[in-house]
From TrEMBL:
Pfam families reported in the protein's UniProt record: ETF (PF01012)
Family recorded in the similarity comment: Belongs to the ETF beta-subunit/FixA family.
Signal peptide from the UniProt entry: none
CDD domains: ETF_beta (cd01714)
One GO cellular component, as annotated: mitochondrial matrix
Residues covered by the Electron transfer flavoprotein alpha/beta-subunit N-terminal domain: 35-238
Function: The electron transfer flavoprotein serves as a specific electron acceptor for several dehydrogenases, including five acyl-CoA dehydrogenases, glutaryl-CoA and sarcosine dehydrogenase. It transfers the electrons to the main mitochondrial respiratory chain via ETF-ubiquinone oxidoreductase (ETF dehydrogenase).
Note describing how the cofactor binds: Binds 1 AMP per subunit.
Protein name: Probable electron transfer flavoprotein subunit beta
Superkingdom of source: Eukaryota
Main location: mitochondrion
GO MF assignments: electron transfer activity
Length: 279
């Protein structure tokens, strides 16, 4: 799939909500009774990394002005996932795509999601120049979908991005990304897959306050179009290839104890079978 011919940027932002079992990040996660997953009878919200991706797409349009033609958001999930699409539309996206699946369907794996996104991109008549998505979901923490999508599309990729600058005329982007021990700057040709890191939000916050969906924008979002699709429409199979055998909470941490001096500390360590190691 080639980028759009005109020097205008079409951005696609995949987002995740209940479908990927993304529980609100402020809610304590608990294992469900059958130990096959987590308890979903709690508050759900947009995956925070995807929220950063939506914000970055909107900021790009604010910086690039009229050279950004459209921002579309796409989600895969049950009917309630449309609420998350409306949130993204209220943040500034222009239109949404909802790949709807039954509420009881199992969560798709990164490969299935990437194939669905590839099909969505290939259906876009005006093309897609830039895909911005969260680096991972906070449920399975797989962090694979962006990379798989780049491989399927044979596009450039810049993962763990903390800063994105796009030159639409040259059809290229400079992306600063997080690496061990510092930052790395990449120069990429469009079309491009970018996955956003938390540092992207921190950089944005240094400039302005975080964006919240205002009441007027929420009302406007209700009038923005959302296209309904099914996996069959995209000719993709979202059946998981993996089976979850068991999910268990980590063992509870035991309370610590206090010692009066170093000698007591050494004695406690010896009782625990811990011996000193020479540097």
């Amino acid at each position: 799939m080639r980028p759009s011919a005109a020097r205008l940027l079409n951005i696609l932002v995949p987002i995740k909500r209940h479908w990927c079992r993304t529980v609100d990040y402020a809610v304590k996660i608990r294992v469900n009774p059958d130990q096959k997953g987590i308890d979903l009878s709690v508050k759900h919200s947009m995956n925070p990394f995807d929220e950063i991706a939506v914000e970055e797409a909107v900021r790009l349009r604010e910086r690039l002005k009229d050279t950004v033609k459209s921002i579309k958001v796409v989600t895969i999930g049950p009917p309630k996932a449309s609420e998350t699409l409306r949130t993204a539309l209220a943040m500034g996206a222009d239109a949404g795509i909802h790949v709807e699946v039954p509420e009881s369907a199992p969560a798709p794996e990164p490969l299935g999601v990437a194939k669905a996104l590839r099909a969505v991109i290939q259906r876009e008549k005006e093309g897609v120049d830039l895909v911005i998505m969260g680096k991972q979901a906070i449920d399975d923490d797989a962090g694979q979908t962006g990379q798989i999508l780049a491989g399927l599309m044979d596009w450039a990729q810049a993962t763990f991005a903390s800063k994105v600058e796009v030159d639409v005329g040259k059809k290229q982007a400079n992306v600063t990304r997080e690496i061990d021990g510092g930052l790395q700057e990449l120069q990429c040709r469009l079309p491009l897959i970018v996955t956003t890191d938390l540092r992207c939000r921190r950089l944005l916050m240094w400039c302005t306050e975080p964006r919240y969906a205002s009441l007027p924008n929420i009302m406007k979002a209700k009038k923005k179009p959302i296209e309904k699709l099914t996996p069959a429409d995209l000719q993709v199979d979202l059946t998981p290839r993996l089976e979850t055998i068991k999910v268990a909470e980590p063992p509870k941490r035991l309370g610590g104890g206090k010692v009066e001096n170093v000698d007591q500390l050494i004695a406690k360590l010896k009782e625990a079978g811990i011996t000193a190691v020479a540097p």
